[in-house]
Amino acid sequence: MPGRLRALNIGVWLLRVFCWTTLIATVGLVAAAFAMIPHDWPAWAAIVLSVIVVESIVFWIGIITVYLTSVQLGLKIRVIGVICGWIPIANLVALRLIIRTCREEVRFEGDKERLDASRAAYRVCATRYPILLVHGVFFRDSKVLNYWGRIPGELERNGATVYYGGHQSAASVKDAGRELAARIRRIVDETGCGKVNVIAHSKGGLDMRWAIAREGVGGLVVSLTTINTPHRGCGFADYLLSKVPDGARRRVEAMYNAAAARLGDPNPDFMAAVRDLTQAGCARINREIGLGPFPGIVCRSVGSRLLHATTGKFPLNFTYPLVKWFDGPNDGLVSRPSFPWGDDFVWVEPTENRGISHADMIDLDRENIPGFDVREFYVGMVADLKRRGL
After folding, report:
1. What is the structure's pLDDT at 256?
2. pLDDT digits (tens, 9 = 90+) for 235-247
3. Is 139 helix (H, G, I), strand (E, B) or coil?
4. CB of 265 closer than 8 Å to CB of 259
5. Fewer CB atoms inside 10 Å of the end CB: C or N, the chain?
6. CB neighbours of 70 closer than 8 A, spacing ≥ 6?
7. Spans of the chain below 50 pLDDT
8. Which CATH architecture does the domain made up of 125-387 adopt?
9. 139-177, pLDDT tens digit by residue?
10. What is the DSSP letter of 28?
11. CB 278, CB 241: distance < 8 Å
12. Which segments cross the bilayer (predicted)?
């Protein structure tokens, strides 16, 4: 078990000890009060003070440990814990939620570690050609906060070699495709790998289709898997562009482009990216490069669905009902009819009430979702590439 999980397990154990010993001590002190008060109240008060000091030490060590080491607590439960910690009864409910969440995290991650250890020798993700992960719009590849969450680490633990697209956060499909083509050529030249398996999320799928169709890297790509890509555009985006006043649109564009430039984008273009995501924009792109799969390349697509707005994280919890109104079942941004592309389409239908959002499909929030293990989903996809000799 990794050090983080060991520490988290110790924190959970301390909080459980705190709960049980506080309950036992409270019962004992109440019983002792009848025997010791009033004639021996100083001794009883000293015992009470000692219990409070010991229990406080145990509690604070436990709570600080789980706050520092847990991933699944998230911001929401941490805030609940801080606010409710000062409210009687509510603090007990919050503490129970914290313990239950962390215990489940230890169990789940422990099972994951044991699974990886049991198949380590098989290197199930050691594909013939490396994996290139291509991000979507309005994000950049970063070592500080990986766009793909825990997925790359899981793939690498199972034998995969992983590279990143490294293109800027917002650009037209054409410009992003040109950047990705240059990136692919550089990887192939520097490593001698010959070709790459590409897994592209959201707009990244459109960018890669352009790179293959128009930038001459079709011979360097052995497979392309698009994840929640709007191949036929987002009707919601068309609506927004038609309703947002020009002045407001220009201000948002200027602010985003300025911020992206400060973060390293050489030539960010917010509106070009947005226009290419509309239904009209994707229809134009599909006329230029075609919508069918590429000969000689394994072409696959994946899509998922949220069930309720409340189960999506911000801002998808706001956009989901709007996209549903305009486009039907969706992942918070993209509707089901827009996902299918290539020779094979996988529809991720939620098995629980939560659903699977646009962000869930790249583990953006690092959340363990009941009924859907996103890391294992990617292991399965890449293992299938290996079985195909790719």
Report:
1. 87
2. 877 777 777 788 8
3. coil
4. no
5. N
6. 8, 11, 101, 102, 105
7. none
8. 3-Layer(aba) Sandwich (3.40)
9. 988 877 899 999 999 999 999 999 999 999 999 999 999
10. H
11. yes
12. 12-37, 43-67, 79-99
pLDDT for 234 equals 87
Return d(Cα 372, Cα 304) in angstroms, integer. 11
- Measured distance CA(350)–CA(364) in Å, rounded: 18
Tokens standing for 111?
């099972």
Four-point Cα dihedral 50, 56, 62, 68, nearest 10? -140
Q: Cβ(273)–Cβ(137) under 8 Å?
A: yes
Calpha distance 348→363 (Å, rounded): 14
- Number of Cβ within a 10 Å radius of residue 155: 26
Position 40 scores a pLDDT of: 81
Crossing angle, helix 316-327 and helix 235-243, to 10 degrees?
100
> 90 Cβ partners below 8 Å, 6+ apart?
84
pLDDT of the residue at 171: 93
In contact, 196 and 165? CB cutoff 8 Å: no
* Pairing outcome for strands 344-348 and 131-134: unpaired
Residue the block writes with tokens 């001794």:
43
Mean pLDDT, the chain, rounded, equals 92
Strands 162-164 and 131-134: parallel
Structure token digits, residue 44 = 């009883």
CA distance 179 to 266: 11
| Residue 337 vs residues 53, 288, 292: alpha-carbon distances, Å | 61, 20, 15
Nearest to 55 by CA among 28, 21, 101: 21
| Residue 337 burial (C-beta neighbours within 10 Å; 0-12, 13-18, 19+) | middle
Instruction: For the chain, give the number of residues.
Output: 390
**Are the C-beta atoms of residues 224 and 300 closer than 8 Å to each other?**
yes
269 within 8 A of 171, measured Cβ to Cβ: yes
